């Protein structure tokens, strides 16, 4: 069964208290938690919470959260790629995208993002998937962190590496539009060779770049 989800959890001690990192979270449980007011990177908090609850209802949708008691202070999402992106063109059942990762400023630099990815990959079912994430520098909080593009890219890449995602080349025009943008990928241990070849065809539309 491709979309099997096995719940995992861990505690992370920080100077601000102990966080619970857990998931994948069922939509009903997610709806019962509060969403921190500083989770504003993508939408206003209430709208983002609603979006995450909807993702959690999807067969392939996975939400891993970091919470301080009943308050969500960070999360990561996994779901099928946007239908408008090239990654959805192959209609691959075993390709999912790490769509968003967000941690409130208070807990940044405390390994929350890294541990969200670690808990994500504790589920053995993740070995059935090719997991991708597309990183664009214009989404990064350069102002809030005080980092330049390359420093932020280095931090982001290190965090993704903790979940087993590594840099992959692609000729996707949006990713290629700036050298700091990148595609990062984790190919699960049970992904078949045909799926890997199909993914390679999505990565490169121009044969000469193979």
Describe this structure in words.
29% of the residues lie in helices and 27% in strands. It is an alpha+beta fold and 210 residues long. The chain has one domain: 3-Layer(aba) Sandwich (Aminopeptidase), CATH 3.40.630.30. Strands 1, 2, 3, 4, 5, 6, 7, 8 and 9 form a nine-stranded mixed β-sheet that branches. The longest helix is centred in the N-terminal third of the chain and has 13 residues. The radius of gyration is 17 Å and the shape is globular. GO terms for molecular function: acetoin dehydrogenase (NAD+) activity; acyltransferase activity, transferring groups other than amino-acyl groups. Part of the acuABC operon, which is possibly involved in the breakdown of acetoin and butanediol. Acts as an acetyltransferase inactivating acetyl-CoA synthetase AcsA via acetylation at a Lys residue. Belongs to the acetyltransferase family.
- Classify the fold: give the CATH topology: Aminopeptidase
| Elements, N to C (H/E) | EEHEHEEEHEHHEHEH
CATH H-level superfamily title: Gcn5-related N-acetyltransferase (GNAT)
Number of helices: 7
User: What structural category arises from helix and sheet content?
Assistant: alpha+beta
> How many domain units?
1
Number of strands: 9
First and last CA, distance? 32 Å
CATH architecture grouping:
3-Layer(aba) Sandwich
Mean pLDDT: 94
- Percent range for helical residues? 25-40%
Give the CA-based shape.
globular
The proportion of strand residues reads 25-35%
Spans of at least 5 consecutive residues with low confidence: none
Family: Belongs to the acetyltransferase family.
Pathway: Ketone degradation; acetoin degradation
Keywords: Acetoin catabolism, Acyltransferase, Transferase
Function: Part of the acuABC operon, which is possibly involved in the breakdown of acetoin and butanediol. Acts as an acetyltransferase inactivating acetyl-CoA synthetase AcsA via acetylation at a Lys residue.
């Amino acid at each position: 069964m491709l979309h099997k989800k096995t719940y995992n959890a861990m505690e992370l001690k920080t100077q601000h208290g102990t966080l619970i990192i857990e998931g994948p979270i069922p939509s009903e449980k997610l709806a019962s938690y509060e969403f921190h007011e500083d989770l504003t990177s993508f939408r206003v908090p209430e709208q983002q919470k609603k979006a995450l609850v909807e993702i959690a209802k999807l067969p392939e949708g996975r939400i891993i959260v970091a919470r301080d008691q009943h308050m969500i202070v960070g999360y990561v999402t996994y779901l099928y790629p946007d239908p408008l992106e090239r990654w959805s063109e192959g209609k691959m059942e075993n390709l999912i995208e790490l769509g968003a990762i967000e941690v409130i400023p208070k807990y940044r630099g405390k390994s929350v993002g890294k541990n969200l990815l670690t808990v994500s990959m504790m589920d053995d079912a993740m070995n059935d998937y090719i997991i991708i994430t597309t990183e664009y520098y214009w989404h990064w909080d350069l102002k809030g962190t005080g980092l330049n593009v390359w420093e932020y890219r280095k931090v982001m890449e290190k965090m993704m590496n903790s979940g087993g995602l590594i840099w992959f080349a692609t000729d996707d025009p949006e990713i290629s539009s700036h050298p700091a943008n990148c595609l990062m990928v984790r190919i699960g241990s049970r992904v078949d060779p045909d799926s890997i070849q199909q993914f390679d065809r999505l990565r490169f539309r121009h044969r000469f770049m193979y």
